[in-house]
Amino acid sequence: MTYLEIEGINHLSGNITISGAKNAALPLIVSSILAKNEVELDNVPNVADIKTLLSLLENLGAKINFQNNNALLNTNTLNQTIAKYDIVRKMRASILTLGPLLSRFGHCEVSLPGGCAIGQRPIDLHLLALEKMGANIQIKQGYVVANGKLKGSEILFDKITVTGSENIIMAAALAKGKTRLLNIAKEPEVVQLCEVLADAGLQIKGIGTDELEIYGTDGELLEFKKISVIPDRIEAGTYLCAGAITNSEITLNKVNTSHLSAVLAKLHQMGFQTLAKNDNITLFPAKEIKPVEIMTSEYPGFPTDMQAQFMALALKAKGTSIIDEKLFENRFMHVSELLRMGADIKLNGHIATIVGDKELNAADVMATDLRASSALILAALAAKGTSKVHRIYHLDRGYENLEKKFKALGAKITRLEE
Description:
Layout lengths: L1 E6 L5 E5 L4 H10 L7 E4 L5 H12 L3 E5 L2 E5 L7 E2 L1 H4 L9 H8 L1 E5 L12 H9 L3 E5 L2 E5 L6 E3 L5 H12 L4 E5 L5 H12 L3 E3 L5 E5 L11 E2 L4 H13 L3 E5 L7 H9 L3 E5 L2 E5 L8 E3 L11 H8 L5 E5 L10 H5 L4 E5 L2 E5 L8 E3 L3 H12 L4 E5 L2 H4 L5 H7 L3 E6 L1
Parallel strand pairs: 2-15, 3-14, 6-7, 10-11, 18-19, 22-23
Antiparallel strand pairs: 1-23, 1-24, 3-5, 4-5, 7-9, 8-9, 11-13, 12-13, 15-17, 16-17, 19-21, 20-21
């Protein structure tokens, strides 16, 4: 088992390049099931979740070539429609195979998913939508067993769901007739999926809004063009917080700042200035780090995937910050680990109160999920002494070349074996 050793209280400086977005690449990889041709994806992050999904497609019979952040996907050779537990249990996004497999083959079996233990994220909305499109759905021995030829329908999602939106968008692509989707997620990752499908010949209206009209091809596969995955807004936000918590000047390359509006707004409220030029952004130190109030919500609101990082940053603010986690009930698991480093944080249900400007001390801490892991790294950068962050396999699911990038900014961080 590996862990990270991090020496704190060092200024950062320099520049790094942000990788492609894991959460955009995952549905794009799965969308290749809808393709008649070999699909080429560029700027694909080399992280564990991507490798897991590529393994799943290979297990279904696809031919995959992944190297140098470029993936070639040939799904013409698919000969299985069963997404097995051994792979699906590692990553929740595997459920994204359900819609396109059913739409293309009229039958599939997908194991109920795993992933980070950040709270209940049921797939009921996925299944209800598919049933409305004509699918017969049964749960058998931990598998979703789906059958039927999909037909266009009008579907209103009771709540906004990113993976649910992506799944049903892909299901509607090869369905017969028009599908109208209401209360759709507007995350940049969902928008890119729609744009890619439109470029492949699918007729979609309303891209970027919460209402889509999709005119299915009635089983005719799509002709995909080369795809370049959008920059990872959560990785960019994490490194901006690293610069902020050490009150340093750093520059990020290959960033889409329009995807970071909510994150940048909170950094500005806390006293930091930024300068965006083309696809680069520079963060400048604050004269004084101010407390902040954050409420997580769906895009374009403040992302739940940045909540833990801003909690770490709030530990250095002069005053009391409030974070209201509206989306997931178990997303404060990092708090107990931050307390080990001297943090003053009180929880009341889904609200965290953070008293800042306390001295943080190094400690042995344990990662509990992907984004919590990055919060512990940030706190370690600002703590006195040398911290050890354990169970970092969570980090490897979503951050590419993490130590290399932190070292490029001057952080003293080393990966070691237990």
